[in-house]
Write a structure and sequence with these properties.
Elements lengths: L1 H20 L14 H18 E15 L5 E12 L2 E11 L1 H18 L2 H7 L6 E11 L2 E10 L7 E8 L5 E8 L7 E13 L2 E13 L4 E15 L5 H10 L1
Antiparallel strand pairs: 1-2, 1-10, 2-3, 4-5, 5-6, 6-7, 7-8, 8-9, 9-10
Helix pairs in contact: 1-3
Amino acid sequence: MRLVTLPILLITSFLSASSVIQGQTMSATSAPEISASEIVTKMAYMNEKRAAALKGFTSHRTYVLDYSGFPSRKHAKMEVDVTFNAPKKELKIVSEEGAEMLRDHVLHKLVESEAEANDRSNKTATALTEANYEFTFAGREQKDGRNCYLLEVKPRNKSKFLYEGKVWVDATEFAVVHIQAQPAKNPSFWVKRTDIEHRYEKVGSFWLPVSNRSTSSTRTGGHAVLAIDYSGYHVVPHEPASPQQNALMGSSQ
């Protein structure tokens, strides 16, 4: 889940420099009562199963960054193709336009930093688990067309890669559907507030991100909005073992 907060770190680094220069609630009646700990445990188990079953995918992303404030308004856009072959992910910039400062200091760095965020040790340190967060069960809601459990999450430490807010978990498949949060630690003195909204949807048998929107405001009146849209998924699952392969593995044990 580090990717939820990673865009914020790069936006705030740009905002800091600029500043120095100057749901509708419904009852999911089909879902039984359950504790926050049980939800998180089942979510971790299902995430591991889905990750093990995912061989790879290709997709497309559109990054759009708009900044308003001193000294002027700025806009930048970048189109990126993504290829994931577990566990490696490659991002290729296919086009870009707009303010060079935004592209070089935010969008390019965001693409480059994702390789670091995909590192296993970083994933463990930022995962949505009880090792990193305290969870409180806050009810059941309909969110993005799914019956969900609503969890309030609070980080166990004030890391800039963790967040505090609300997480909606699908009540049937125990997958994250929606996140609304703020960074656990303000990445910069100059940033007054940052809001994060991250959405996931089911693609085939897998839950993958479809949008990430981050809005930041500075103490001097600057305002930045970063929108990342994910599209064009082509998912490749691992092929199940054939009866012959299962028989062979069984005979070798």
